[in-house]
Amino acid sequence: MRTVFGSTWSPPVNPDLVGLRRIHDLSSDAPSPSPIIRPATEAIDQRMKKLFPVRMEFAKPSHPSLVGKFASGSLFALIVVAVYESVVFLAHVSFRTWGEIVLGLIVTFLRVILTLAIALAWTIPVGVLIGTNAKLARMLQPLSQMAASFPATALYPLS
Questions:
Q1: I want to staple 64 with a disulfide (CB 3.0 to 4.6 A). Which of 8, 47, 48, 68 is the partner?
Q2: Considering Cα of 117, then 121, then 124, then 130, what sign does the dihedral take?
């Protein structure tokens, strides 16, 4: 218990933790602290409480400054203008161009799915084989560690 702002204050108690502590205290396998350790830990606790006291001062809500209001308003206006300009720009795109865009999206999606299927088709069996064979794992571990050290973006020029 501490005195804060002229009144006594105690930290809030979580009833779940109190129940867990009771269960732990009642369990027979819980080690009892030795007469030397308990006073030492309590002394350390008291020193830490003095070094790092709990401060219960709550920050007053701050009101946005004029600069903050201006920055927020400017960002909002920029977003509105960008959305408007995008709609105006896309309104001039012909239906044929929209068809090409949708076709390109579908082809790209199918390429990505095919690439993932090929990758999964060989990496899952190899991973299971390495995981179940200790000798193979010892041989391939250095290679996999070396391959993992390369960032994926470094492989883009190869594709």
A1: 68
A2: negative
- pTM to 2 decimal places: 0.42
Could you tell me the residue ranges of all domains in the chain? 66-150
Kindly report the length of the chain. Answer: 159
Short-list 138, 114, 113, 136, CA closest to 125? 136
Percent helix, strand, coil in the chain (nearest 5)? 70, 5, 25
CA distance 80 to 87: 11
Q: Reduce the DSSP state of residue 4 to 3 states and report it.
A: strand
Task: Quickly tell me which residue has 């779940």 as its tokens.
Answer: 16
Report whether 4 contacts 56 (CB < 8 A): yes
Alpha-carbon distance of 56 to 10, in angstroms, equals 11
Q: How confident is residue 5, by pLDDT bands cut at 50, 70 and 90?
A: low
Query: Mind listing the pLDDT tens digit for each residue in 28-56?
Result: 455 556 777 788 888 888 888 888 877 76
The type of residue at 6 is: G
Question: Measured between alpha carbons, how far is 96 from 45 in angstroms, rounded to an integer?
Answer: 74
